[in-house]
């Protein structure tokens, strides 16, 4: 019984957190669709058999389904959750075509599809803005307090008291930004701009490659230069400052995530850091024990990742639909239905294969 209770401590935070960010994603599709007068037949959090649901006055079935790993909105004219046109979509009456997703102009369909990922990024910005305006943003000045002996920083000539203001041409304001960038770039020659005695200098430092195991048993290969910060501080922003800082934080996390994925594809970064639903459930349970603020921050990070993943140009995902619609916009006519159907099948297989792969990594890591 104790084991079941422990598992439940991880499962329920995972289900709640995932349901929220999936709802936000699908709500983005829904709102833009309604704005463009597309009839929405189903709004589902989860896949498979319906657990509970209600109909609204617009004829939309709002429901929660059995399998919680995702969700969908089904538009009038769709044959399935992947938004494939129904067989009789070309035989609709003139009035019905006014509410059919597949009879909207291509720019309208692009807007509807983009609405989901955009909602995830906006949701993250809102959460960050609330946190930065109330609790404060983690803001430790990028000043060097101590330097480890024989470390890359000491060898390069960095000194205690130096303030790091840039790396490879990118401005640095916080130690947290510095730490994140260094960890993402082990064994890469990087040019640091430092402020010393009122004047700036440029120093080249190559972070060491260090293996570190996190609390979930995953080994991360990260970069370190051997400097220690003075401590952790939090900076509260006014409303405008909180929103601006939230936008910067979201953009920074998005860009660094893309860079990390590129490094994995290029082979310079290990894929051991990737995780599937099991790992997300583990992390959800951990953050739930650390308090509501940590849960909100984690939810924002997950929302960014969900929005980003859905923009990948893989048929079945939003990015795959966008590829077809952009081609249609350029050619002036839709991609042949047969090609779209083949693409969706390939995309479905790729998504399933990815899910199996990352889940198997979780299983192996846990020794199951």
Describe the structure.
This protein is α+β, with helices and mostly antiparallel strands and 368 residues long. Helix content is 51%, strand content 20%. It is built from 10 helices and 12 strands. A 4-stranded antiparallel beta sheet has the order 6-5-7-8. Strands 1-2 form a two-stranded antiparallel ribbon. The protein has a two-stranded antiparallel sheet with strand order 3-12. A hairpin with a 2-residue loop joins strand 5 and strand 6 (170-171). Helix 1 packs across helix 3, helix 3 packs across helix 9 and helix 6 (239-266) packs across helix 8 (292-310). The protein starts with a helix and ends with a helix.
Strand order of the largest sheet: 6-5-7-8
Number of helices: 10
CA radius of gyration is 24 Å
Number of strands: 12
Can you summarize the main beta sheet?
A: 4 strands, antiparallel
Order of helices and strands: HEEHHEEHEEHEEEEEEHHHHH
Which bin fits the share of residues in helices?
40-55%
* Beta-strand content estimate: 15-25%
Point out poorly predicted stretches. Answer: none
Overall pLDDT level: 86
